[in-house]
Amino acid sequence: MTRVRDFVGDSTFGFCGPDFPFDIRHCGTPPSAQRSAVFMSTPIATILTHPGNAHKDEFLACSVLIALRPAPIVRREPTPADLADPATAVVDVGHQHAPELNNFDHHQLPKDHPPTCSLSLVLQHLGLYDDARQFCDWLETAEWFDCRGPLTTAKRLDVSPGALAKLISPIDITLLRRFALATRLEPGQPLWEIMRMIGEDLLDYVKSLRARLDFIGEHAEIWTIDLAGTPAKILFLPRTDPLPDDPSMGIDRYIENRGLADDVVGTVSPDRRSTGYGLSRYRDSARLDFTRIADQPGIHFAHARGFVAKTSATDLTLLKQFLSLSGVAPTIP
Questions:
Q1: Model confidence over 276-296: pLDDT tens digits?
Q2: Domains located in the chain, CATH noted
Q3: What's the distance, Cα to Cα, between the start and end of the chain in Å?
Q4: Closest to 138 in 3D by CA, of 210, 57, 211, 246
Q5: Cα–Cα distances in Å, from 106 out to 98, 252, 327?
Q6: How far apart are CA 232 and CA 251, in angstroms?
Q7: Under 8 Å CB-to-CB from 191, ≥6 apart: which residues?
Q8: SS3 66
Q9: What does the alpha-carbon distance between residue 49 and residue 303 come to, in Å, rounded to a whole number?
Q10: Which of 81, 98, 245, 314 is the least buried, fewest Cβ under 10 Å from its Cβ?
Q11: For residue 256, how far is the Cα from the chain centroid?
Q12: pTM of the full structure
């Protein structure tokens, strides 16, 4: 029977959020490349995890591993020979954390140890854990859920346990149920291939976002625009050549990391569907209402709720004018 504790986070595997995807070809080499290369040089013939109920931590840990080393996944208890063989990666079972042997279990850790799951250990081994904790908002919750259970995790999040159950989706249920029913998964089988894609996307996201934030830092500008008589800050990201697949990826994260979240009310970034720009509220700020410019020449779309507009304009003076015309006076508490 599927239990609430078998699921973590949002209604999908959700490691991407609004910041993904981004084409890492335009970002340069990720800082973790050498660590991953060392892992890639280690031959792995089998990835072994426990039988029975499947949980999101070992599912994702196995997904990351097969994205790097496309080995079969076997679900059974490990033998002493398995634990001693670095060609067998043992995940979430075996009571041993020995990355030099590719053993990634956390169940032997003291009960007061900071919440750490098998995915945490794999990411640490790859040198990606710190970036994953910074960029993947769901990871800390996944660690708490796996190590402390749903009641403690719900209390930490200041929500009811029932709220966590409402975030479970059929995607979670089916993938984990099918994984639990399997005893061996081979390359080419549908579930194995889906897991590989999940692992690839997770790795690409973590690796590319670090480089993407550096890219934004090199190109972004902070404008101060008069909005209905009161100045406000807007982040502007110019068009570049080549243009990233998702030009707005990482902007929200960049604003947060720079400590600008309380000051910035909107963003202007390249529109990937046209040669112009997209104008957006930041955190749905009430200081901007783009319905006010819906009839302006050069505006080809303004959402009826006023949170986004698209323009073919590239002239910076005109873009600033659109922002000013969209301005709303701040409310007085």
A1: 999 999 999 999 999 999 999
A2: 4-209 (no CATH), 220-325 (3.10.310)
A3: 50
A4: 57
A5: 10, 33, 52
A6: 17
A7: 175, 178, 179, 182, 185
A8: helix
A9: 48
A10: 81
A11: 15
A12: 0.75
